[in-house]
Structures are given as C-alpha cells and as structure tokens.
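This entry is passed on directly below:
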Amino acid sequence: MNIVTLIDTFVSTLLQAEQGFIEHPDHAGRFEEAVVEASHKAAADFMAMVFEGTDELIRGSRPRKDRYNILRKRKRTLITTAGDVTYERTVFQDRETGKTSILLDEMMHLPKHERFSVNAEAKVLNEAEVHSYQHAADSFKNSCYGEDSRYHRRYPGRENTKPKEMMRIHLYRSR
C-alpha cells in the first residue's frame, strides 16, 4: 500500500460516514464511531507502511549487505494505541556468527515477543495505576478493540476473555 491509496481509502471512508450522517442525523454517535474507527485504521495502516518501508531501506543498505544475508520475511502484529499494526519485516543471518536477527525490531528496541507498543503499554499501566486492572484493561480494550473490532473478527469467541487476567499475564511477562 502506498500513501495515496491510504489517503484515498481514508477519505472515502470518511465520506461514507458523512453520507450516513446526512441520511440519519439522529445517529450522531454512529457517525462519531465511524470517524474514529477510520482514523485509527488509517493510523495503523500508515504505521505498518512506514515500518515496512524502513525494513526495505535496511535491506538495501550497504552495511546490511556487507554483514548480513537475507533469510526470509516474518509478520508481526504490534498492539498500539491506534489498534493492531501488522507488518512484515526481514529476518537476517550474520555471515560471521550465523546468528539470526531482525534488524528493524532491534532498531525499534522491540523485545522478541513483545506485543504492545511502548505507548500502548504506558497507557494501560497508567490506567492501572489510577484505576483497577480490570478498568484499565476494559478501557484499553474498548478504545482499540470495540465490539466490532478487527480483534474480535480475527479471534471470535474472545469477547468474554477476562481482561484482568490477560493484563496480569502481560505484566508478569514484561518483568
């Protein structure tokens, strides 16, 4: 996806939301939800596009070519404040040591199995500090993973997962 396609999709979604509001001005809440969802999706898609573009720059760089071989590509989904960001990045192999690494992840200081972005984790922890873990998990889940979110479409049946337990597991793993 390129920036023009991203903007075109975003504007078209906003215009559809506008048309829905014009036809049903009594559904202002639906209009607001549609605009926010379109904004989050555009932000997540833009982040994925930038991450993949940076990975491409790394693949083409002279220092990378001098030291690393390209092995394969691997997808990663990062939970952000804009929602899920899924992108592909390249797995490299060091010619001298044989060790594999993902240079984009290293540049971004992302631990190997981390699922939350720094800002998403900070938001959850801040909410947990002010409120209960349950409230923090619910708040984050609702802001990024509303009732009809991509998360619930991707993982049907997880609507009733106890966010408090998921939160404790994540906090335990990040220590």
